[in-house]
Design goal:
Elements lengths: L2 H10 L2 H34 L10 E4 L2 E3 L2 E4 L2 E3 L1 H33 L10 H28 L1
Antiparallel strand pairs: 1-4, 2-3
Helix pairs in contact: 2-3
Amino acid sequence: MGFLKEFKEFAVKGNMIDIAIGVIIGSAFNKVIDVIVKDIFLPPLSYLTSGVNWTDKKIVLSEKITENGEIITEEIAIGYGKIFATLIDFLIIGLTVFIVVKAINSIKRKAQDVKNADIPTPKDIELLSKMTKLLEKQIEITEQNSNADSN
């Protein structure tokens, strides 16, 4: 099978569209989380630590050297404040994804339960359930016939 044919099948099946939608939503979600961390979580933390701005925290290894207003050497520093904010981002994103996946799995379990009338059962699960019932009836009839033949 040629590369273009495989790509066409991939795109037509919806996988590519699902991935694109996921990337777009993920990008927007990242912006929301960034605002939540910078404008909601870090200001109270800064307030509790007497106004320390955590995103600007750094360990200076070498000071900036200037002479007559000209920069001779740039400051060399390890910026640990940004990693702190990024870790908070990561924790919020991880927790949110966990909650969303947990909710989706709960809905899936309910949807796959044929006996649950509250949520409509997907067609494939409904069909499998009907096939199982028919097979059980067929086995029962076969067992009855074999018992009748042996008597």
